[in-house]
Amino acid sequence: MLDIVRYGDEILVKKAEPVKNIDAAIRKLGEDMLETLSGNGVGLAAPQIGQSIRMFVTDVEGDKHRVFINPEILLTSQEQITFEEGCLSLPKLYIDVVRPETIKVQAWNEKGRPFTLEVGGFLARVIQHENDHLDGILFIDRVKPFKRDRALRQYSRLSKA
Asked: Is 130 a catalytic residue?
């Protein structure tokens, strides 16, 4: 199990660097990230475990677990949907976030093979959330400032409890 970086750590607001080589170390990191995620959430980005690289994993019910390396969201739908989100780096905090309902994403898997997915619903949301981490964006940055401030005050109270 890898340690999860918590809100306030600088790595969470930095833009991650592209993965240059998909090698044994990257494959092992993907396995370790999926193991860390198992039973704890549905997505985990490398910056959340202290690695400033463009990589994340997903484990969404109804879909196989996936490793996304150097992902790029190619298209987003105009249709937006609101859904409650949480984050392993801000435990116990949940707020409604508006995101595109469907996306088209391109990435490389842990074997170095490119793939493209067109997905909607919950998996699309998870991919967008994790991809945001690679750009130094947290889900609380996707809401209006007053809502963000209120959520951070709530998080501060929760983390002290």
From this structure: yes
